[in-house]
Amino acid sequence: MSWTDFYRRQEILEATVRQAGRNPGAPLPLDEVPGAADHFGCEENVLAALQYKWTQVLSGRLRTEVTDPDDADGLGDHVDAVTRAWRATVDEHETLRAVLDGGLERHASLRRMHEGELRMLAVTSGLADPREPADEITKVGHALEALLRTNRQEANCPRRPVMNGLRRLLAPSA
């Protein structure tokens, strides 16, 4: 792929997100974006490329937050770091996240990629160990993401409510 192709694909992805932002839950309007069908072929391929873009941004923010130089002793709270990274990414790319969420029901491959993201959140936050079974880590990631989505509007939400919510969601049922 040439640089011209790369930049053209990026333009197509941006245009697709803008178009899809009108109705993020609907199938992507590939016919309304010149070149989308030629460069990507189908909705699933566009969504995979968009998920890759989302993962790049989120993982970069996670890396930055977890390795904060102000926390030189390395004992910082990783749940807070993941919370800040996830919220900042959603705030900056809200339409992209909505488009990806809309595609989850339509494409199993997108769900698998999203589950990988959930495992990344769970392990990075320290709420799960990478040696645990993948389905358990995914459950922890789902619980964390649910809390992040619920508390998103409360930008200065203190740590305790998030942690209490996690304990409640992850506690074994009686």
Q: Radius of gyration, rounded?
A: 18 Å
Q: Look at the structure and give the mean pLDDT.
A: 87
The count of strands amounts to 0
Q: Give the termini separation.
A: 56 Å
Classification by helices and strands = mainly alpha
Name the poorly predicted regions: none
- Sheet with the most strands, sense and barrel status: none
What sequence of helices (H) and strands (E) makes up the elements? HHHHHHHH
Describe the structure.
The structure is a single chain. With 174 residues, the chain is mostly helical. Helices cover 68% and strands 0% of the residues. It has eight helices and no strands. The mean pLDDT is 87.
